[in-house]
Amino acid sequence: MLDHCPGAANLRTPTLTVRKCPQCGEEVEVFSSDVAVTCSRCGFVVYNDMESCIRWCRHAKECLGAETYGKLTRGKKP
After folding, report:
1. H helices present in the chain, as ranges
2. What gap in Å lies between CA 41 and CA 56, rounded to an integer?
3. 20 with 44: CB under 8 angstroms?
4. Per-residue pLDDT tens for 20-76?
5. CA–CA separation, 23 vs 9, rounded Å?
6. 68 — alpha (psi -120 to 50), left (phi > 0) or beta?
7. pLDDT at 9
8. What is the 8-class DSSP label of residue 3?
């Protein structure tokens, strides 16, 4: 049995993706643990569209820890 779910690995140990701001084209660094990042050039908010286990797994809060779980679910409906 695993200590933690392998599906949550990118949330506990964030990975980096560089995306282009849809407003101005600036490169924006988005970590897998970010909900949203503000573009440094124009201020546009780039949202992380990654779906993760926190949306459906009943053990997500325990697996990720209360702080990370709260950060990723703030303002979202289950």
Report:
1. 9-12, 60-64, 66-73
2. 35
3. no
4. 999 999 999 998 878 889 999 999 999 887 666 777 778 888 887 888 788 877 755
5. 31
6. alpha
7. 64
8. S
